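Carboxylesterase type B domain-containing protein
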Amino acid sequence: MSFMIPLVLLLIQRVYSDSPIIETPWGQIRGVPADDGDYNMFLGIPYARVDPDNPFGAAKPVPKFTGIFEANNGTTICPQKEEDSHEIRGTLDCLVLHIYVPKKAKIKLPVLVFIHGGFHEFGEGGPETYGPNYLVRHGIIVVSINYRLGPYGFMCLDIPEVSGNQGLKDQTKALRWIRQNIELFGGDSDKITLYGQSSGAVSVEFHLLSENENLYNQAIVQSGGTYVWRAVESRNNTIPLLLASDLGFKTYDVYKALAYLKGIEVERVIESATRLKIQSSACIEKKFNGVEGFLYVDPVTIKILPKTKNLPLLVGITNAERLLYVFRTLTENPLGYDPFKDLERYVPQNEMSRAYDIVRRFYIGDAPISMEVMEELIDFDSDFKYTYPSEQSVIRFLKSEAKLYHFLFSYSGGRNKLKVRENITIGGAAHSDDVGYIFETISLRGKGSDADFLVLDRMTTMWANFVKYGNPTPEITDLLPIAWPIATTQQLHYLNIDKELSLGIRPFHNRFAFWDLFYLHYIGSVTKIIMKLAWCLLILGSVHGQLRLDPLVDTNQGLIKGLKAEDGDYSMFLGIPYARVDEENPFGAAQSYPKFVQIFEAYDDSRICPQIQSSEVRGTLDCLRLNVFVPNEASTRNKVPVLVWIHGGGFIDGSGTRKTSGPKYLIRHDVIVVTINYRLGPYGFMCLDDPEVQGNQGLKDQTLALRWIKENIEYFGGDTNKITVYGESAGSASVEAHIASRNENLFNQAILSSGSIYGRGLLSEIDNSAPLKISKHLGYETDDAKLALEFLKQADVKLVIAAADEIGIRLGLCVENESEGAFLTEHPSRISTLPKARNMAILSGYNAYETLGMYYNQPAEYFSNIDPFKDYLDQFGLEDDKYDAAYKAIRRFYIGDYPISINTKWAITKFTSDVFFNYPTLKSINRFHESGVKNQYFYVFAYTGERNLLKVRGNMKAWGAAHADELGYIFDMDILDKDVNKRDQVILDRMTSYWTNFVKYGNPTPQETELLPIVWPTVAEDSLNYLQINTNEYTDAAPNNERHVFWEVIEELYLK
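Tokens:
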């Protein structure tokens, strides 16, 4: 730029002449020497100008100066009702900044830019209010700015001409001006610290989270932040209508109201806004093409601030922020004051009475509101409106990896700004009291004791050190004898600034712990104020428009929008991705799913993992999805237990979709239901001697889903400490595998239906032949498993699934090699006890005729060609004599000397049910008992009705309950009639009550009822108690005892 002088020395010489003149793109600017220090002042420099045709909208560029601009006026203020005098004054020609430059600098100096507070309604950056002399003497440049306030700065409408946040956009223009021009004044444009106090601190945090470019390198956030009371309001098109009406012009046309208001004296507009008590806050803007925006999302929903990563921050509060307000109100209106009623702003009406009582008793017990409990009332009002919300900003900064220094200002002295002004002598530091130890003000000029100036010297030194070095105590000195440590999420270090400096960890930790619980219970969390899951009111359009109810949840993954269910009082969040398959290695570990950039519309649960359905290969590898079903009663204030469903299907088919796992019968019992997909067949269970395909990927997918649920279900109103995992068949074996695995425990209870990890054929060893066989079937023959795998990675998914099916490859759980990320490295049946199961409540059982579907509809000739006893024993590789003895014993036990025929199909059904389901289930029950499970409930499902799933699917008219038949009395399914007959309805009601009681209480029958007249006993050490679920239910001990004892003996003699 031709106007810039290249040599810093020449620059500084010109700055520090008696009448300092600076060349800028707008022309020459002449400053004045300060009379209270060795620095020059450039006062009232215009950085933008308000558009006279649209004073509530975007500011315009400043024209070039026609002559030397005399920067000697520091009294310009934006229209406002002044805090001290209560006079209404100011001009719209107020978008100016003030620059204070030390005279003796030899190098470019760090820059501190100050944004004043005042609720965005009053305040200014001039030297009479924020004199810089105590800071400038430390060798830094100080810049303070004005920005529009009240309706001129913060009117927020649904029109492009007044889109909102103009005061913040003014600040942005000032920051751009400083960034582009401060080097002309001797400043370092790469060392700019943005500093705000009160609503100025709110502004600073808004800049940290806005989408605008980063115009500074560090920040100081003092007694404010985006979580504080009144920080954000909604767009409101009624504001100009109200102002115009109050001033005598009635209209319902926003544009006509604005046209009228622009012609009214600014004093009258401010007076009207004051009279109408119109608040000035930032807002969430509506996007318009060609209009520069500032804030498009609710700041409290933003969990990570990318701009703050590695950014030095200095953040703090005073120890009695609301001292002045509480003292003044108690003094003036002791009978009418009740600060606890402010809770109404956030707490729903139906919970207000209880919330009010809890908070009031926490702070003042049963004492009446009076001067006697003033300190406690100050604590409450401060916590609710400043200190706890400010602490949430600190937590978010730390999660965003900022380098953060935290402070608490506690000093009470002769320069405490507000207390001096109001002549208050009680202890504690009120809101803005710390400002008197940073800046000179006209009311404090020359005031203060030696102790006061020691605090002042310390604070200005630390603040200036931070501006210069990003560290307030780069070295220990006599003045600063303590090294100020940075805060972390684990240890929230802070510096207490009082007569002496001292260090602490987590200020007001007991009060903040209370507010953590309060917000979670009554509001949902500070980051979700008024976001009642799942029916969140989204304000769309003008205030005269319609309010739309949408189930919307803010999770660690991002915002997720669901649907209202049509078949019950619940919300559905369908097809949420919890992980993604690695395209480069679809048989290996899944990858994390990126965070949502925009709202994820969870409307579709149709994705299933690749599998064969109705003789056709269906599905996609983009299938690692889960579905969350939330009753309307659930919220982050009213957390409910969670039931996670893992489907069965032999690890080759199945899904968590509503077609097969509709939740409506469970949801009505006020539990959250989550259903998941996981990879199947070769993509989920290929197990190789290769670190890239270790095996059990389907189970590892389930683990990723369970972690996602553990980390996010609270945002849906779920209780992370009450998660029950429920599996049937292969899903049940999966649940047991999770209990046996080395992974962390991600659930608290378990339901295992018709499946055990002891079941034959479920577990296998590493098998490198699987990829060779599948690739050969697809036309690529090799003896190298890696080459076969590379071929299969590129092959069409449907062809791979079809090939595995055609050649009869059945894959399942496997024992992996020891490696990072392994799930099972020891055969689960060899693990004698399961530490994770200790003290876990478990409900498990089987159906009376599990394998009925294998035989019932088979023709007579089928039985002439089978020998299930031989098929079973062939798996064990027994020596001939043992094989013959075992075969003879087993066959005789079940069918005697009869030949295998259609006449023995019921006996064969009992045999295969015993070896594949019933006896393995009993072995699991025994091991759970030995592992310390005290509350274990066992059932046998024996009911025959019109919702027996497998029999409906297979058109079987037989009596008895087959494998998966019970699921029709738990879930709603497309294959089953929507109309339930009375007989079936009783079983359905009982089953869903048992299951959800267990989810909620760890006990399926916490009390006897007309529906549940029998108390279900737990399994005892000396009695295998169980509940028979049928039309006429009963409890007994040791079902099919003779068959189970028989298998104990067989195992002992032959199958060890």
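Confidence is low (pLDDT under 50) at residues 1-17, 525-550.
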